[in-house]
């Protein structure tokens, strides 16, 4: 996707969030975002033919720790779209923006169900610790 298409995706995303796309730099493939009260970050977009991932960062020391969730997400397996990256950044910044944290109730219920099962249910030949490790890998 060329940089202008990415900028269009970012503009559309901003229309549904408190963030504004305040600057784009095509040669650096950089987009800067800002939302009140002083929440800012930027995204470096990979080149078309390059295998690199997106990169998110903030020059604000107040914002930087909140980006850890998004940075971990980007570095995890699989290619991410700009929209997916921006959504993860938005979720990361919700506390700074004074927004309620999104609930992951469905995940918690699923985890509770898995933990309630006995280890013998799926793999009677494995020990309890082996089953836990296998289930964590599956998630």
From TrEMBL:
A single GO cellular-component term on record: cytoplasm
Please verify whether the record's keywords include Isomerase.
Answer: no
The UniProt annotation puts the region (Disordered) at 107-139
Biased composition of type Basic and acidic residues is found at: 120-133
Give the principal location in a single coarse category: cytoplasm
Keyword Cytoplasm found: yes
Location comes to: Cytoplasm
- UniProt KW keywords: Cytoplasm, Developmental protein
Q: Tell me the domain of life.
A: Eukaryota
Q: Where is the composition biased (Acidic residues)?
A: 107-119
Recorded family membership = Belongs to the MTURN family.
Name recorded for this polypeptide: Maturin
